[in-house]
Amino acid sequence: MPIFDAPDGTGLAFHRLGEGEPLIVLPGGPMRASAYLGNLGGLDAHRQLVLLDLRGTGESETPADPATYRCDRLVDDVEALRRHLGLERMDLLAHSAGGSLAMLYAARYPQRVARLALITATPWALGWPASADERRTAARLRASEPWFAEAFPAFEAWLDGSGDFDAVFVPFFHGRWDDTARAHAGREEAETNDEAADAYGGHGAYDPEATRGALARLTAPVLVLAGGADGGPAPALARRTAGAFPHAACVVQPGAGHYPWLDDPEWFTRRVSAFFA
C-alpha cells in the first residue's frame, strides 16, 4: 500500500486497482475510507484506479490539526497526490461528497484536470444542496417496496429536522435493497471518520460564487452522472450542476440510487469507461 506525505507531513495512503492509465478517485461519505468504492463495478478492467484514503480515513494517518479535515483544506492533499504520481494532468472521478472536493480542486488547479466525472455528487461547493422535497419525491418512488411503510416516516422526520439519521431508511440511498446493498451499508459506520465528516463542510469550506466563476472557465470535459432513484442529488440538480461547466454532459442511470455501480455495474462501467476512453 503506497504512502505519500501531505504538505503538512500527514501520511496519506492510496490503493491501486487494475492496470493502465491512472484514474484518480476521491471518495465521499463525507470522509469514508475508499474501500467502500470497491472496484467501482468493474471499472478497474478499463483503467487503473487510484483510490485515495482521505486524511484520517482508511490507511491514512490522522492529522495533528483537525481543522485540516475541511473540504477546501483537502485540496492540497489531492494536489500532493498528483505530484507524487508524477502526472502533468490527471483524470479525476469523485463520488458523492467527494464531488465538492473535486470541484474545489478543479477551480484551483484547472490546468491539472484532463477529465472530470462527478458521480451522484451533491454540489455543496456550488451552493446548491439537495432539497428535502427532492429527497421526498425520490423516496416516494419506492412506495411499493416492503420496507417503505416503516422507513418513510423516519425519513421525513430526518428531513424536517425532528428526527435523527436512522438505519431504517438507508434503503432509500440504494436503487436495489438486496444483500449486496445491505452488506455495503453495514460497513459505513466502521469506514467513516465522524469527527472528520463534521468538519468537512464546516464554516469557510465553500465559496460558491468564486467556485462557480472559476468552473465556468474550465476547459476540461465533465461528466455528471445521477441515479434515477436518487434524491441527493436528484437528476434535476445534476443537470443544474452540469450547467455550471462549459463542457459538461449529464447522464441519468435508470433505477440507480446513490451508489450506481452497485445497482447496475455493467451500465455504470460502460458509460463511465466510455467517457474516460
Question: What does this 3D model show about the protein?
Answer:
The protein has 277 residues and is an alpha/beta fold. The protein has one domain (3-131, 193-275): Alpha/Beta hydrolase fold, catalytic domain (Rossmann fold), CATH 3.40.50. It has eleven helices and eight strands. It has helices spanning 71-85, 98-108, 132-140, 148-159, 179-186, 188-191, 194-200, 208-215, 235-242, 260-263, 265-275; strands spanning 3-5, 11-17, 22-26, 48-53, 90-95, 113-119, 222-227, 248-253. An eight-stranded mixed beta sheet has the order 1-2-4-3-5-6-7-8, with helices on both faces. Strand 5, helix 2 and strand 6 (113-119) form a beta-alpha-beta unit. Helix 2 packs across helix 8 and helix 3 (132-140) packs antiparallel against helix 4 (148-159). The longest helix is centred in the N-terminal third of the chain and has 15 residues, at 71-85. It is globular and about 50 Å long.
Q: Keywords for this structure?
A:
8-stranded mixed beta sheet; alpha/beta; Rossmann fold; 11 helices; 35% helix; 277 residues
Radius of gyration: 18 Å
CATH class: Alpha Beta
Q: How many domains make up the coordinates?
A: 1
Roughly what fraction of the amino acids lie in strands? 15-25%
Shape: globular
Short description:
With 277 residues, the chain is α/β, with parallel strands linked by helices. The protein is built from 11 helices and 8 strands.
